[in-house]
Specification:
It contains 15 helices and 16 strands. It is α/β, with parallel strands linked by helices. The chain is globular.
Length: 445
């Protein structure tokens, strides 16, 4: 998890081995040994797919490592993304933070569990809190649909209803591209909320390999941002384009991914592990003690299993991401290792956890989470500012002088990003700021 995406998160992500090579989609090589890969983000196995590698190699041969804003590869990828993901327009950028830094954060709400940096935004933990806050001049909600540390989804439909009642704009950051939804369009597609979402931000580099992020939204807004934000290298765009095509055409990969996740979750639960509210292939296993979590990580590496952990004191846990390319025998191998280690190492009491198989977020299920023990409700505490009737106005007063327009405030904020200022002109910045303003000030009829 990139450091610049963490916000008040009291913990750190670690991996129990060093990846020296990736000999196959389900394995990594570390210090000369092969380990089953439950630590990666390549959930569909597309990063190792020959067709994706060939597409990237061809683009690398033709264009090298250069970035070609507005080039043929970028246009083809954006057209395919807009068509497959049910959007009027799409734009590729080199990193999600490039858009987030343009947002008028002091006018927006974010969910407490979110990881992205929106320094001046008010934070809420429920749609009911959002209802109160939006009645005090705030204009939108920035919501992260997937919670990878718990494996569940945010209650996006309820937030969407609140936004509609208050004519506010909903921006969804969706890390589930390629995994959720009938066509792999992510959590918004899974929950059938495309029409209620003003803007979608879909990071790449997970199930869809590559770099950067896709912005989906209204054509006027997308065109206003075009040319303002940098794009990834051509080879990475070609890889993402081919992977998105394969993901949409080969739905069996998602079916297999959820079959593997179902078997892992059910197997862990039957062996006494607490997987919390997880309904996705991002599977946590509660450990509850940081030192014990480190022991588990080391022991798993010794048994040829690569995985991640979240070290957060009494909220520490293992983080497993079994991919679609794991065979049944490999899944059984993983569960056997967990069973043996559970007899050797301490395991938190999970007697209150139901051992029934949870309903996962497969296409058509609309699952967002499963009942979990109380300790899951207090994960990642935040130092958040209280929601009061005067909070929005006081936040605005502290964050930006009243004599500046919204466009100028956003412009002044992004102007401090010096590396970007050397690549695009101030006129383009102002055009992007105007586009943001138009998006969030637009009222529904």
């Amino acid at each position: 998890m990139p450091v610049d995406l963490l916000r008040n998160v009291r913990g750190r992500a670690v991996v129990n081995c060093r990846a020296d090579a990736v000999p196959s989609a389900s394995e990594i090589e570390s210090n000369g040994a092969r380990l089953l890969n439950l630590a990666g983000d390549d959930l569909l196995g597309l990063a190792a797919d020959t067709r994706v590698r060939n597409a990237a190699s061809a683009a690398l041969k033709d264009h090298g490592l250069t970035s070609l804003p507005g080039g043929r590869l970028q246009s083809a990828f954006e057209d395919r993304a807009a068509s497959l993901l049910g959007s009027e327009a799409a734009l590729l950028i080199d990193h999600e933070s490039a858009l987030l830094e343009l947002l008028p954060s002091w006018r927006l709400l974010t969910e407490v569990r979110g990881r992205r940096v929106l320094e001046d935004s008010a934070q809420v933990s429920t749609p009911e809190e959002a209802e109160v806050a939006l009645s005090h001049s705030l204009v939108g909600v920035v919501l992260e649909a997937l919670h990878p540390l718990e494996g569940d989804l945010s209650v996006v439909p309820r937030y969407a209803e609140v936004c509609q009642r208050h004519h506010a704009r909903l921006l969804v950051i969706d890390d589930a591209l390629g995994v959720l939804g009938p066509n792999g369009g992510g959590a918004v597609e899974h929950l059938s909320l495309s029409a209620q979402t003003a803007l979608r931000l879909l990071p790449l580099g997970g199930a869809i390999p590559g770099a950067g992020a896709l912005i989906l939204g209204e054509p006027d807004f997308i065109e206003a941002l075009r040319g303002v934000l940098p794009v990834p290298a051509a080879a990475l765009i070609a890889a993402s384009n081919k992977a998105l095509e394969i993901s949409a055409a080969e739905g069996a990969r998602r079916t297999r991914l959820f079959d593997v996740a179902q078997k892992v979750i059910s197997g862990l639960r039957s062996r006494g592990f607490d997987t919390g509210p997880c309904v996705t292939p991002w599977i946590p296993a509660w450990i509850g003690d940081e030192a014990l979590c480190v022991q588990w990580l080391n022991a798993l590496a010794e048994h040829s299993i690569a995985c991640r952990g979240w070290l957060a004191g009494p909220r520490s846990r293992l983080l497993l991401t079994p991919g679609a390319t794991l065979t049944d025998s490999q899944v059984n191998q993983v569960l056997d290792v967990f069973e043996r280690l559970a007899r050797k190492l301490a395991l938190p009491d999970a007697s209150s956890v139901t051992k029934d198989a949870p309903v996962l977020a497969r296409p058509g299920s609309y699952a967002m989470g499963t009942p979990a023990a109380m300790h899951w409700t207090t994960v990642d505490p935040r130092e958040r500012r209280p929601l009061e009737a005067s909070a929005p106005s006081s936040t605005v007063a502290q964050s930006a002088p009243e004599n500046l327009s919204l466009r100028d405030r956003v412009f002044d904020a992004v102007e401090t990003v010096t590396w970007r200022a050397t690549n695009v002109g101030s006129g383009q910045f102002r055009r992007g700021a105007d586009a943001i303003r138009a998006l969030f000030d637009k009222k529904r009829g």
